Structures are given as C-alpha cells and as structure tokens.
# Entry
Amino acid sequence: MTRAIEEAAPRRQKVQAAEVGTDILRGLAELAPATSLSRLAEHVGMPASKVHRYLQALIASGFAEQDVSTNHYGLGPAALFVGLAAIGRLDVVKVATPALAELRDQVNETCFLAVWGNHGPTVVHVEQAVRAVTLVTQVGSVLPLLGSSTGLVFNAFLPDAETTPLREAELARPDARDAAALAATTEAIRRTHLQPVHGLLMAGVHALSAPLFATGGRLVGVLTVVGAAPGFTAEADGEAARRLLASARAISARMGGDCSPAA
# Structure
C-alpha cells in the first residue's frame, strides 16, 4: 500500500503541473496579444515567481514567447498551431445545431441555418416551431440572394467574387430593387449584423437573419428566425432579434470568430 501511494505521488504532481500550465496558457489567451508577468500572475491568481517558472517551460516548448523589447509574454507558435487545429475541426452545422434548438425554444418560431452552396444561400438545418412556416425552410432550399433576409446577409459579408454573378442576375430582373437601396441595406447589415424583412420572400412571412463568423472574420453561415404575421413581427429592436444576435455571437465565438455588431 505504501509503495502504491509513493508511486502515485509523482503522477499527481504531473497532473497538477499540467493543470497549472493550462491555466497559464488560458491566461495568456485571455490577455492576448501580450501581457506583463505581473498582470498575468494577478489574472491567474498565482505568485509571479511560480508563473515565471512555468512560462520558461512553455517558452522552451514553443507554447509561449517573450517580446525582448517589452518583456511581455504571449502565446507561442505551438499554442497557435493547436488552436487553429482545434478551430479547423469545428463544423458550423455541428456547432450551430444545439444553439438553433435553444433559440427556437426561446422565440417559439422556426429557426434555420443556411450556408453558401453552389447555387447560393442553402438551408442545411431547420428547427421547426409549433406554428411552422415550412414553405421556405426545408433543408436543401436555395434562397434568393437579394430577395430574402438570409441572402442579403450573405451578400453583405461574402467576397464580391462569390456573390457578383448571382447578384447581377437578380438585379437584372424587372422587379429588382435599385442599386442605391441595396447599397443602403448592405451598409446597415454590416453595421448592425442584423437583417429584418417583412413579407419580402413571401407575403405575410417575416424573418430576421444574422451572420456567423469563423476565425479570420470568414462568414460561414447565416442564422434566421422566420414566422408568420401577426404572431411574428421581426422587429430589429425586439426580443427575437436580441436572442438571435446573442446566439450568433455565441456560435461565432465557438468558431473562433467575432459577431459583435458595430452599432
């Protein structure tokens, strides 16, 4: 028994050391891009001397680095590699699915996720509400770029090289909105990260859409809440919009992106 206890002690010490190291790494990430030793020690709640010892080990393994001009510490290339690898494994459908179900329960309206497909905005996951609007929210549905709240968000944040052919084709239609109105809408979406529409795609059907971003500010999808009048008003300053934006921010953060509106 004594021998077993003695053998277990080094293992416990290694586990504790690993936990301290990960706490310091997390602190470096939370204080990124760089921080002083004293601030880091205060942030993680450890003595500066202890943090310094662990930082030296992390620097040696490439997980931390020190700027010689400021003596500040930051994440090293090994930590960045691990972080990017973890983000690369995330799939927007997998990450967004539980959040979509929660959002549906919160607003009691149909919620769906769309991604950019070969033919434009494509619905890939739907959480139906009791009073479901099914005509435009079936998995596999392709939505118009300029004739839906979902499409307008894609138009606002995707590179022009991806959207120009579809946009030009829709603008050439007799019933298309004028370029000035589209430019104003696009600017508003980029500023607020929200697009409400009222009966645009279908009379009596309203929608709210918000973008999802991954690392590097890359748009990876659009969340949309859709419902029928008069039960759903899709107001930009309403409770549904607030909850939609909160869900979009949470999913984007998980994907390594930032979905915080500029206004």
Notes: Residues 90-254 form a domain with the Beta-Lactamase fold (CATH 3.30.450.40). Confidence is low (pLDDT under 50) at residues 1-6. Strands lie at 64-66, 73-75, 110-117, 120-127, 195-198, 205-214, 218-228. DSSP finds nine helices and seven strands in the chain.
